[in-house]
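Budget justification note: compute hours in this period were largely spent on complex prediction jobs such as the one shown. Inputs:
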Amino acid sequence: MTSLLKRLFFFAVGLFLALPLIVVAGVSINEKQTLAFPPQGFSLSWYSEIFTNPEWRSALVASLTLAATSAALALVIALPLAWFLWRRVAPWANIFQLLGVAPFTLPPVITALGLLTFWATTGFYGQPWTAAISHAIFFVTLPLVTLSLGFSAIDRSLVEAAATMGADDRVIFRTVVLPLILPYIVSGYAFAFVLSLNEYIVAYMTVGFTMETLPIKIFNALRYGYTPTMASVTVLFLAIAALVFGLVARFGDLPKLLGAMGDER
Amino acid sequence: MRREPPQRLADYGPLLFPAGMLIVFFVIPFATMIAVSFFEREQGGFYQPAFVWDNYARFLSLFFGKVLGFSLFLAVAVAVACIVIGVPFTYLMSRAARKVQILWLVALLSILSLSEVMIGFAWSTLFSRTAGLTNLLVAIGIMETPQALTPSFGAVMTAMTYQALPYTVLVLYPALVRLDPTLTEAARTLGASPIRAFFTVVVPALRNTILATLIMVFIFALGSYLLPQLLGRPQHWTLSVLITDQAIYQSNMPFAAAMAVFLVLVSLALVGLAVYAGRRKEAA
Amino acid sequence: MSGLILSNVTKQFGTFTAVNDVSLSVPDGTFVCLLGPSGCGKTTLMRMIAGLDLPTRGSIRLGGEDITQVATHKRNLGMVFQSLALFPHLTVGENIAYALRIRGVPKEEQTKRVDELLAMIHLGGFADRSVTKLSGGQRQRVAIARALAISPKLFLLDEPLSALDAKLREAMQVELRQLQQQLGITTIVVTHDQREAMTMADTVVVMNGGEIRQAAAPVDIYRRPADSFVADFIGSTNLLPYTVDGSGRATVFGTPVEGLALAGAMAGTISVRPEDVQITAPGNGTIDGSVTFIRDLGGTVETFVEASGQQIVAVSAPRTRPEVTVGQQVGIRLDPATSVVLAR
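Corresponding output:
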């Protein structure tokens, strides 16, 4: 009885989470440009539209470029910081950890507005590269958290063992720490990449009038009416996210990454 | 490994770039925003340096009070709904087989990362007249004709719960997965039914975690800016929407900045209050 | 002067003194065990020898050179960690070759040395295995081979066998001792297992409370313990109070013990090993008491006697066991040759 109840509860939550996506997937294969569900006819043309229509394609390219560069920058900020906090006793340096986590924890509109005023004041407002820096700061939390987790998982006696065998700090980092931390670097990058791909408000406030990322493009399109390409892009993005997180789960320990330390099941 | 304080200046090297980036692109923008909140607005969308409280004085209007009240109410409602669904769900998920857990985690992460624009679009489709839920009800014969369920408060509330639920589950997950399973087993041997054991053992044991999660989800919901716009009527606009609107469309940066500062203060104050309450409960 | 010489080494963590004014000289080629209960400072002392912790005061010299402040990676030593600390991302061969790779030894030479070491630890052909797929004993051997790859002057092992089961541990103790003698390398092992220390060491250094209580050969530590801590920690013993009477004789529970060499104090403690306690008929100049319990372990028999409120244990082989029963009145005779007067 309780087992049935449990299944029913799982099913209900699953349905709630899946329903909007099923409908979106449905309308994305409509043959004509209508918002109809169940779909009328079958066509994948709204998917090819993303790549053939120059407007959608350039938005896709802009989004991918922004996500790739900002995630890399976020990683470059997070890695030395996480390493320093792990390697040294410097309680005051935790302030930077706090600063790294703050943008992601506060309502995003605050970070967005802060960056908007900053770029406007410095005169760089609207430059595409400002979006990359803005996203890197906004999402630095993700690699910072995964890397801190990764460093704390390193048995310190491994580092000591390397030192007794003649390795200095630099060599230890290259031969021991880096190989062990690599899965966390990859997952930190993956998290930042996927979230940057989907981010709207920070991108909109910093470069919204000069550059169109896909979320901005969808929002602008929504104001002028409906096109099934929105649906196909949503499905595409969902697939990318599922693929990336699926890969992280396949090659890394996802439950552990999400904080389930010491879970040996 | 000997963890020791930095000895030489060179030991601080690794900190240079991260600290510089965070200070220049987070601390300074934050400070700039605070400064702008005291500036005067000029005609034509610009602002000039000044030190006036005018932007904050505008909070003392009925309109602003209503927006603030609604924002807080909406965020609380969403947070409570997410906790009510999320705690039992996360508990059951954390007890499931590892493969099942991973499948759920991948799905939750994918939905969590989905752009707010896309979530808004998905729900507006689901609540639409032509492709929505009501078509299903018509098909079963419960309803006569399909109708649009948006814009409405229910639509805003549902979509925001949808957006925040994966976040809730992922925040709860580490604590629940680490919860000693023998606790409930002990309760079971003492005669409690599984549901009773959940409410008498799991929930009290996680009281502080649940409270902390409630606050996190509350802040998360407070940050929602697109869903109220896409699925609600103007009276369902939240503070975040108002800030965006003032900054982008009304070009009133000083007022937008003042509201953002206010939003930060409200968030921090509520966090402080809840942490204080949690501590006192713990001490009792 | 060669060998390892510690002079007045002290280590403080905040207000806690982990190692207090320790001086020790380890000649080249000897095998030393640092033995003591947990928290006695033995691991901290070893970490200072390795350079993983720096002494608060004192100096450490190796082969005539002051290495107190030398960084760990410049000390050219080999160390086996309690957790073994094998690199999980490297194979068995890569783990063993690590120190050689760091030093830029040519690839062919690395391979040759790895094969040599693998043969030495009886794991020939294991070079390409993953270290995570080895058994406990195999991992242990790999850790030892890795530490010996550069033929270090000093070989340190921190509780190296603690993760193994009892049988394997005993076998590894013998193997380790034979290996050390074969290589003639100066070796220091930290352990809390007195049996392990007795099996392997030339010199056992017994530590407690951050201080060295006695440093001597295993047999001497057992037969001539310096104080009641050492006597009690190494093996089991009977600690009996004595006083010196007016005629200068030592008496235990009022019974004189003839011929005991006294250190001058008027009262103190003597240590008598259970196997040195002789049970005879009461009276006639013996310490008298009654038998409270007999524990027959098959190989040995322990007889518990209560005399003047204190329990005394005698151990004997089954063939020479005293013919006594529980409740019987017996006498105990102490042999001055096996009764040790303790310093404190």
